Amino acid sequence: MRFVSFQTGNKTSWGRVDGEDIIDLDALAPDLKTAISVGLLGDMNDGPRVARNTVKLLPVVPNPSKILCVGHNYEEHRVETGRDATEHPSIFTRFADTLVGADFPIVLPTVSSSLDYEAELAVVIGKGGRNISEADALNHIAGYSCFNDASLRDWQWHTRQFIPGKNFPGTGVFGPELVTPDELTDMDSIRVESYLNGIRMQSATLDHMLFPIATIIAYVSAFTQLSPGDVIATGTPGGVGAKRNPPVWMKAGDQIEVRISGVGSLNSHVVSEDAA
Fold it and tell me: Fewer CB in a 10 Å sphere around the end CB: N or C, the chain?
């Protein structure tokens, strides 16, 4: 099953995708995060239908309590950045107000021209907990989605801390759909790719992750309580713009696509902050 959060007119809602329609389910819960927390993600058909092409898709979970991101989680990306190998995942945070949905642009701020793309698989937590074991970790997942962890590299590199370059408004693209785990098989073969103006820039399968999804969930739940609707962005493959020669930065007018097999395609265009 596939679920979305969306806006139509002045109303925001959520629903289940059914072909070219969305079954509006806001009568059951006020938002998708609430629906996840009370276990409502079933094969529901009782609700008004709206056409997909008449709404604007919001971030899959517009209001997560936590967004935890994994750095350098593919060997090729670790090597291209010159980072040392570590025994534990590198974790940083994003703020919920940086998120945009599939039908909204990435915003290039006026204070930077070093906007980079990062195609990632996002994990949405369904069942919360602390000290979750690796053996049980996948049972805590509500679903998966595409994520573009667009990064302002100059601000990221001001210090060793990532947070400034990862938290400009309109830079965390999340969507278009939440795909439940039963839709996916052979997770290791799922391919994460990015295409900038139609040219493939990144490509790797999940079996190239240094820290698999279950390991990440177990690790972060050891230091923080995970809650339904929390988001984990699991890292990006090699091929980022910053490490190309010469560097490739996204600019206003560019089109960037995150494509994840079995999960979906997340297409965005870039606009300047003044235009936004």
Answer: C
